[in-house]
Amino acid sequence: xxxxxxxxxxxxxxxxxxxxxxxxxxxxxxxxxxxxxxxxxxxxxxxxxxxxxxxxxxxxxxxxxxxxxxxxxxxxxxxxxxxxxxxxxxxxxxxxxxxxxxxxxxxxxxxxxxxxxxxxxxxxxxxxxxxxxxxxxxxxxxxxxxxxxxxxxxxxxxxxxxxxxxxxxxxxxxxxxxxxxxxxxxxxxxxxxxxxxxxxxxxxxxxxxxxxxxxxxxxxxxxxxxxxxxxxxxxxxxxxxxxxxxxxxxxxxxxxxxxxxxxxxxxxxxx
Length: 271
Hints:
The protein is α/β, with parallel strands linked by helices. It has helices at residues 3-19, 22-32, 34-45, 63-72, 83-93, 109-112, 132-142, 165-173, 186-196, 211-218, 221-227, 233-245, and strands at 53-57, 75-80, 98-102, 117-122, 143-152, 156-158, 198-208, 255-264. The chain has one domain (3-156, 180-208, 256-264): Rossmann fold (3-Layer(aba) Sandwich), CATH 3.40.50.150. It is built from 12 helices and 8 strands. Helix 3 (34-45) crosses helix 4 (63-72), helix 8 (165-173) crosses helix 12 and helix 10 runs antiparallel to helix 12. It is globular and about 50 Å long.
C-alpha cells in the first residue's frame, strides 16, 4: 500500500470511529465537562483575545467552538472528518458566530478558501492526523500574520519518577502495549509547528490520576480503538475497564498530563 493510500485509509478509519462515537462522547461530556474545560484551558494558556476568529480543526460536534464563543465571544469555524459528528453539532452550534463543516484538516484550503483566522486550534485532535506536517502547513496558510497555531495532545499517565503508567497498566493486565497509541507523536507535531512558526512555547495541564475518568474516556469507541485495535467494541470496552482498574492504587501518586504547544506566524515566510 502506497503512502497516500495508507493516509487515506487512516482517515477513513478515523471518520468511521468518530461516526460511531457521538452518543458516548455526548454522555461523557455531560458527565465530565472535559472537552469544554480542555478547550478553555488551552485558550487561557495561549492568552486568546476576545472577539477574535478561530479555526477549530478536528472540532467534533462543536464543544470547543461553543466554549470559545461563550467565554471569549470568538467567531469559530469548525472542521471535522466525521459527517455524523458535524451533523450532530449543527443543531447545537450553527449560527452567525459558529459554523461546523465536514472537511479534511490536511486540506483546509478546500474548506476555508481565502478566509484568514487569528487562531488555528487543535483541541485533542492533532495526534490523529497521518500527515501532521501537512495539516500544520495548511493551518499556517489560514493564519493572519501574528496569529497563533496551538494544540493539546493525547494524555500522558505519569507516576512517581515520571513512570509511564500506561506501561504499568498493560503489564499488570498481562497485555502488550499497543504499537501505536497515536498516529503522529508529540515531537513530530512540535517539529512541524517549529518549522513554520516562531515563539514556540510548550505547556502542561496536570490533573490528578482518576481511574473512573480514564475508564469513561477510553471506553468511547474512537478512544478504545487506540488501546485495543482489531477487537470488537464490546471486548475493547471490557478491557479498558480492566486496564485502568489495575491503577486503583496509584490515584494518590499518579497524574494525567495534557501537553500543549503554541507558535506564532511571523511576518516572514516559512523558515
